[in-house]
């Protein structure tokens, strides 16, 4: 079985407006769709292609055919959600990945965080976003000729500890290898 694990946040409109609704959709396209769409459609999201223009590489017909459907499963790491506020086009000035989506992202609206803040300053606990990404995945299923989503592997990212070692904050920051450390060591040996 060959697959890929994507990382995506969920994005909500900063306020009820067509421009912020569109900004949230663009943010999803630029984080989730950027990688998912080529795997299921053979090309980047239309909104992304429109905004980035000729700076975004084009798939040849052969490349598109090769990448489309080229996996057995998809994993998903979800950690947080953000609000998306419409950002006007940069009109070619300082154009970059960070301005292409024309979305300003934040975890706080009117002084209120989207959810409880975890240990990392960018990480807000917003479990509904995981459900919404699952529904986004269900929408992806409409693109498929077979039931690829039946093989999705969904993972929950609600932890504040990352890495291959557990760090004991109460005992001089002593480190203990996790099971994944041992697995990774064996993988590298082979």
TrEMBL record:
One of its GO terms (biological process) is carbohydrate metabolic process. GO terms for molecular function: beta-glucosidase activity. Belongs to the glycosyl hydrolase 1 family. This is Beta-glucosidase 12. It comes from Dichanthelium oligosanthes.
